[in-house]
Write a structure and sequence with these properties.
By secondary structure, this protein is an alpha/beta fold. The protein contains 9 helices and 11 strands. Strand 7 (206-208) and strand 8 form a beta hairpin. Helix 8 (177-188) packs parallel to helix 9 (245-268). The longest helix has 28 residues, at 3-30. It is globular, with a radius of gyration of 20 Å. It starts with a helix and ends with a strand.
Length: 291
């Protein structure tokens, strides 16, 4: 082995040591014990992304969505499909749902409160306990069972990470709610996980104005025929600074890295994740077509 490789190997080892120590420290400070997830008796589940392609999948393969428990995300409750499909699990990760006051957030919470007539496991980070939105949900609708999980990002030696993952004390960075949903699906106990509606063609919906303001057109399967406009792509709920192109592409990269890490963890847990999205830029999972 050359001296250069030895130096790089030693540097990588020291870096992983530092990341592990920092991550374990975060777990000790932030993570709450006893964050048990509901356990399933089913072998498989379907994780629903809200990408535009989900619409045609729902129209062309309606029977597929009745075969296994469903995991939905974000604002799925505002759609007619919510009461039609009656998902078993609902994952929300975006802080906008407990720190924000947008119309979409209000509609989502109200729809959950009034439409849910079946048992629903709502999975949100412990951080969401600060919001009256979720306390009120459980108070007004006994069908909703809220489970709080630890969104404490782990980086470092993977063996330690997997032990923390299985204890629900930490998880990989989830730049997108679907990454978190897949992780939670593995820890709930599903062995076959089908991901659908994960288009992730965000780069196709970017636009830079003549003033170098990065704008984004956020599209979903439930938008219908309405014309979605480009809007400035702000860095946060209360921030008025927009992303640069370099920053947003780095953010997108973290999403796809998250999928690769989740796929490795799933295999470690003897689970398989399949991407059955009609169109998708996600390349971390085996692609199969709905039969």
């Amino acid at each position: 082995m050359s001296a250069e490789k030895k130096v790089k190997g030693f540097s990588s080892f020291i870096n992983q040591c530092a990341q592990t120590v920092a991550s374990v420290g975060k777990v000790m400070i932030k993570s709450k014990g006893g964050s048990a997830l509901p356990k399933t008796t089913s072998d498989a589940c379907i994780v629903l992304g809200n990408g535009p392609s989900l619409k045609s999948s729902l129209e062309n393969h309606p029977d597929f969505f009745t075969k296994h428990p469903l995991v939905c995300v974000n604002s799925f409750s505002i759609t007619p499909e919510y009461t039609l499909l009656k998902p078993t699990y609902y994952v929300i990760l975006d802080p906008g749902f407990w720190y924000g006051e947008s119309e979409v957030v209000a509609k989502t919470i109200e729809s959950l409160k009034t439409k849910t007539t079946w048992t629903l496991h709502l999975l949100v980070p412990h951080e969401a306990k600060k919001s009256s939105n979720f306390r009120e949900l459980e108070k007004h609708n006994s069908n909703i069972k809220i489970k709080y999980f630890n969104y404490t990002v782990y980086k470092g030696f993977i063996g330690i990470g997997y032990w923390l993952y299985k204890k629900n004390l930490a998880m990989p960075q989830s730049q997108n709610v679907l990454v978190a949903s897949l992780f939670l699906s593995v820890n709930i106990g599903f062995k076959e996980i089908y991901l659908i509606g994960a288009d992730h063609g965000w780069h196709e919906n970017l636009h830079v104005t003549d003033e170098n303001v990065l704008c984004f057109k956020d599209t979903h399967f439930y938008d219908g025929k309405q014309n979605i406009a480009f809007k400035p792509f702000y860095k946060g709920i209360h921030l008025k600074e927009t992303f640069t192109m370099q920053e947003i592409l780095l953010t997108f990269s973290k999403v796809f890295l998250g999928y690769e890490l989740i796929n490795q963890y799933a295999q470690h847990c003897n689970a398989n994740i399949y991407n059955v999205s009609q169109q998708s830029f996600v390349d971390a999972f085996k692609r199969i077509k709905i039969k």
